[in-house]
Amino acid sequence: MATAFSPSKFAAQPFPLNTTSQNNPLTIPTTASAFLGSTRKPILLSSSSNLNLRRGSLTVVKALSKGIPARAILSELLGKATGCCRGQGGSMHIFSREHNMLGGFAFIGEGIPIGTGAAFTSKYKREVLKEADCDHVTLAFFGDGACNNGQFYECLNMAALWKLPIVFVVENNLWAIGMSHLRATSVPPIYKKGPAFGMPGVHVDGMDVLKVREVAKEAIGRARRGEGPTLVECETYRFRGHSLADPDKLRDPAEKAHYAARDPITALKKYLIDNSLASEADLKAI
Amino acid sequence: MLGIVRQKMLEQSLKKIPPAVSVLRSYSSAAKQMTIRDALNSALDEEMSADSKVFLMGEEVGEYQGAYKITKGLLDKYGPERVLDTPITEAGFTGVAVGAAYYGVKPVVEFMTFNFSMQAIDHIINSAAKTNYMSSGQISVPIVFRGPNGAAAGVGAQHSQCYAAWYASCPGLKVLAPYSSEDARGLLKAAIRDPDPVVFLENELLYGESFPVSDEVLDSSFCLPIGKAKIERKGKDVTIAAYSKMVGYALKAAETLEKDGIDAEVINLRSMRPLDRSMINASVRKTSRLVTVEEAFPQHGVGAEICASIVEESFAYLDAPVERIAGADVPMPYAANLERMAVPQVEDIVRAAKRTCYRSVS
């Protein structure tokens, strides 16, 4: 059975915004159909996978996914003592030992080695300390901007060299504040850099929750089986400016409109309703 | 084996017919000598043996037996999973080690010299030092960064800088600098056992030097407290505070000063952060005069901090301005004669001490 990592599936992958066409949708292979037959369980990364992240609101999103209560996160954002870090960390530094959230990092690329280190520890605990049930997989999240940073390449090398149980997840939203990924990068397809270091590089439509899920499952399975790291590039988009201080004048309105029409949450909602997996009322309750 | 050594020494000494006293003295159990290199190696060995979470990481630490042979024999004993040879990637491997420490193991990271730590300083400061605070105590980082620091011999400007002041200014770090073998063993063991990030500044030129070590120091449970200085030589006329190699120079200066009737007290700082302000102040309150000695650049240095501490807490006790001896304010020259002029020498310390005593320095 062809897996998400079979080279044929991604051979003819056009990169978006490739010079001319801005409304060229990704031709993602139809992995969705393969998924339909499988379980409907919610995304379960690992009982204690570690997430670490790069910036601001994204840290918050990952923190929520890891199960840190929304109230604790919001309190932290407001600098309150009831925050998950007692107001000492703030939006960019959400940590939770209990939820295995190893932090957000402000310096671009800083979190990549940290995540690689956590994966190193998983392997160390299993092989040197001989701890049972130590199959923890680390997910390191970062953006397209971090992919031009030296630490990224240093970690791709070490993770592949030592076969660490880690998935490097690039959230390529094509813009690093006001710098277009295409203006900053000599070879824009980031997933192609994986094989250069000895690991599979996978490109997936980041706006499709289910496709990302399937790719994640496979990458995590690979890591758990001891086959080493994977580089996953999720093509996505940033609907607003980088921060409140960003006037966001450099991005083409047509580009923004193209991606706004592909809002992942709206798409998932439509999918759930069309396939009778949930009702309007259920979703409204969420 | 000791029996054979004794026999051989006896034969030798009988041939020379020395006084009985000196023969006995060579068998004294308290007079064992140990090099700094062996002190560090034995400390690493014992801590790795005691706790399987401790592992080493760095360039050439394994198969090459260590760039300065500090980690000699450890790869054979503990295997490649606990003694890791890394690629040349300071930022990467330091970050990996810090991340590993977040998640529960105890890395000891070697920098071939602390100059290279500048490539990793983001991880030392932002990922290691600040994390316990940012996470409000949830994540502790039990990591040690060690390696040679400061001037060596003829290695030029980019390989000779001392980083004590840089690291010691950062809250969240502990910064240690051993002088003797007792310091090296005790402080490295303390650093490895400590739950917080520790920067451990060694000195390349001291690695081969021998110091006497007692049985207590050789015991595997030996440990020195972090944050406490040591009075290497008691005195009453002037306090000389130094760290690392400069402690040796200060002791030599004290011998010279003694001939001129100045009784110097020499403090081995041992710990730059936390700085043992109470001991330094107590000493200055006794002597009323202070000379600080460091090989590092003078501006914003350890000496400046000690001077500020004395002025803040013991101003009324000073009988003379504080003298600060430091390296020259210039990138380290390469030529040997220039290099000699760029670092403090014993005569500089002697002159400074005499100045504090208002003695002629000719």
UniProtKB/TrEMBL annotation, chain A:
Question: Which co-factor is required?
Answer: thiamine diphosphate
Task: Report whether Cytoplasm shows up as a keyword of the record.
Answer: no
Dehydrogenase E1 component domain: residues covered: 63-286
Q: Which Gene3D superfamilies match?
A: 3.40.50.970
What the entry lists under Pfam families is as follows: E1_dh
Q: Name one GO molecular function term.
A: pyruvate dehydrogenase (acetyl-transferring) activity
Q: Which domain of life is it from?
A: Eukaryota
What keyword terms does UniProt attach to this protein? Oxidoreductase, Thiamine pyrophosphate
Q: What GO terms in the biological process aspect are recorded for it?
A: pyruvate decarboxylation to acetyl-CoA
Look up keyword Oxidoreductase and say if it applies: yes
- What is the protein name given in its UniProt record? Dehydrogenase E1 component domain-containing protein
Q: What's the source species' lineage?
A: Eukaryota, Viridiplantae, Streptophyta, Embryophyta, Tracheophyta
From TrEMBL, chain B:
Q: Which GO terms describe its cellular component?
A: mitochondrial matrix
Q: Does the keyword Mitochondrion apply?
A: yes
Query: Which InterPro entries did the record assign?
Result: PDHB_mito-type, THDP-binding, Transketo_C/PFOR_II, Transketolase-like_Pyr-bd, Transketolase_C
Recite the UniProt keywords alphabetically. Metal-binding, Mitochondrion, Oxidoreductase, Potassium, Pyruvate, Thiamine pyrophosphate, Transit peptide
On whether Metal-binding is a keyword of this UniProt record, the answer is yes
Q: Name one GO molecular function term.
A: metal ion binding
The chain positions of domain Transketolase-like pyrimidine-binding read: 34-209
Q: Name one Pfam family in it.
A: Transketolase_C
Cell compartments where the protein resides: Mitochondrion matrix
Q: What does the record give as the reaction this protein catalyses?
A: N(6)-[(R)-lipoyl]-L-lysyl-[protein] + pyruvate + H(+) = N(6)-[(R)-S(8)-acetyldihydrolipoyl]-L-lysyl-[protein] + CO2
Q: Which cofactor does it need?
A: thiamine diphosphate
Gene Ontology terms describing biological process: pyruvate decarboxylation to acetyl-CoA
Entry EC number(s): 1.2.4.1
Q: Main subcellular localization, coarse class?
A: mitochondrion
What interactions and quaternary structure are annotated?
Tetramer of 2 alpha and 2 beta subunits.
Q: What is this protein called?
A: Pyruvate dehydrogenase E1 component subunit beta
User: What taxonomic classification does the UniProt entry list for its organism?
Assistant: Eukaryota, Viridiplantae, Streptophyta, Embryophyta, Tracheophyta
